[in-house]
Design goal:
α1 packs across α2 and α3 packs across α4. Strands 1, 2, 3, 4, 5, 6, 7, 8, 9 and 10 form a ten-stranded mixed β-sheet that branches. The chain folds into two domains: 96 residues, Pseudouridine synthase I, catalytic domain, N-terminal subdomain (Alpha-Beta Plaits, 2-Layer Sandwich); 137 residues, Alpha-Beta Plaits (2-Layer Sandwich), CATH 3.30.70.660. By secondary structure, it is an alpha+beta fold.
Length: 255
């Protein structure tokens, strides 16, 4: 039922996750993105709010387009003023990119049709001092063409149990990837993945597997073995959190 006394606000948020224990609020009062955004919102709106994110990014993971929703009884503050005021009360590594009022039934997570993630691998000999908390550092030489061939095998609808963390307790491990690209640019190898949903550590496990394939340890066909067996032990290590960025969240089937 629509409640005319409350507004449903959609926020698009960018952040560097290096100094945070992920998105989700922690009982131990550790610094998290959700807690920081909720604190800023409460100071601006004059009431406590719950900010629900589309993705529970892990500690150290970044976002360029995290989406969150919050319900507020403050009907007077204009949206652009709300965005600016919240942005001004957040630390420099968190930014509110936009704020808009959406229908009462819109939910950042449940309404999403998919997400796009970027994983950055620094494969150059010199240390990336200025990017140390934004990329995965790989000292071994990699073969991006081989990684690209392997990545293409992941496109489509598959059971991704072999790329899920053991901590993932969701009933279905079937997901659909519409994009899984590997590109080389500016001394980096960049993996961009779009899917209708992702299992816990799925992108980082894919990245770790592609790194092993890029090093020549495995052939691209290893991907098929992991998918068909569902055996996590056949996949690579869970790649470092700092290399991962949530680029955007998709809604209404638009990707």
């Amino acid at each position: 039922m629509n409640d005319p006394r409350r507004r449903n606000i959609k926020l698009v948020i960018a952040y560097r996750g290096a100094d945070y224990h992920g998105w989700q609020r922690q009982r131990e009062h550790l610094p998290t993105i959700q807690q920081a955004v909720e604190t800023a919102a409460a100071r601006v709106l004059g009431e406590r709010v719950c900010v629900n994110g589309a993705s529970r990014t892990d500690a150290g993971v970044h976002a360029a387009g995290q989406v969150a929703t919050m319900l507020t009884g403050n009907l007077s503050i204009p949206l652009e003023n709300l965005r600016r005021a919240m942005d001004g009360k957040l630390p420099d590594d968190i930014a509110i990119r936009s704020a808009e009022e959406v229908s009462p039934d819109f939910h950042a997570s449940r309404s999403a049709s998919g997400k796009t993630y970027l994983y950055r691998i620094h494969a150059a000999p010199a240390k990336p001092v200025m990017l140390a908390d934004q990329v995965c550092i790989c000292r071994a030489p990699l073969r991006p063409d081989t990684m690209r061939l392997a990545a293409r095998r992941l496109i489509g609808t598959h059971d991704f149990a072999g790329f899920a963390s053991a901590a993932d307790e969701r009933e279905s491990t079937v997901r659909t990837l519409s994009r899984c690209d590997v590109a080389e640019t500016d001394g980096e190898i960049r993996l961009k993945v779009t899917g209708d949903g992702f299992l816990y550590h799925m992108v980082r496990n894919i990245a770790g597997t592609l790194i092993e394939i890029g090093r020549g340890r495995w052939r691209p066909g290893r991907i098929d073995e992991i998918l068909s067996s569902g055996d996590r032990r056949l996949a690579g290590h869970t790649a470092a959190a700092e290399g991962l960025t949530l680029l955007c969240v998709h809604y209404d089937g638009n990707r």
